[in-house]
Model the fold of this input.
Amino acid sequence: MSVCLSLKKIASSPLKAPASFASASPTAKEPFRDACGIAAVGRDAQQVPRLLDENGVGWNTIGCCCWQHDYPYVPKAEFRIAYTDEAFLVHYRASELTVRAKYGADDGKVWTDSCMEMFLSPCPEDGSYYNLECNCIGTVLLGYHDADGNKSRAAYDVTAGIGRWASLGRSPFAERETEGPWEVALIVPFACYWRHAFRPEAGTQMRGNFYKCGDELRTPHFLSWAPIEWERPNFHLPQFFGQLRCQ
Done:
C-alpha cells in the first residue's frame, strides 16, 4: 500500500537566527556556512513548531507496527514537515514509556536511543537515499546509500549545519521513565544532501519514510509511517518508501 504526503512551502525569513542562537554544536559561535560556502538558513530551530502552526502544517502518524508479533509495543509518535527555499523544517513528537539519550555527539548509534528518523530519496530514479536519524536530544546521524549498496556517512561539517531544538535539552542522559511527550525540531539545509544538487520546488516528487525506534530501550519498538512488508525490522528498504510531493 503506497502512502502519499504533500509538503507545503513556507517563507523562511522568520527562521533567520538572532545574534545569539542555540547552536547545533556547543562550541560553535559563528553562523554555520555549509560545505558549498553558502550561508545556511537561520538555525533557530526552536521557532519551527510555531512557524508550522502558523502555516497550518498538520501532523502525520508514525503508527505502522509491521513486526507486531515480536515487538508489539506502539508508542505514540508523529511528525510534520515543510520546506523553504533553503531547507526542510521537521518537527517530531513522541510519547513513550521510557526515554533515553545516551549519544550526545553526532554520528553515534542514535537509533538505539529514543529515536525518530527520516529516510529520503530526493531523486527516486537513481535508486539512492539518505537516512537522517535523530535521538530525543537532537543528536543526529546522516548517511547516504546508492543503488549498488555502497554507503557513506556525512562529514561533521555537514551535520553541523542542521539546526536543532529539543524539549528535553541537549545533554545526554540514561534511560528513565517519561514525564510527558518529547519533541525535536530540525532545520535541514538541502546542502546536507551532499551527493545531489538538490533544491525542491513546487511539483518536485520524492520518496521517503519516517520512523520511530528505540533498539536498546527496555521496550524496543520499530514503527514506520509507510508500511513495510518484511520478515524482520529493517528500515533500509526504499521499495517501501511513500510518496512525497512538494506543493
Remarks:
- The longest strand covers residues 87-95.
- Helices lie at 48-54, 156-159.
- The chain is about 5% helix and 35% strand.
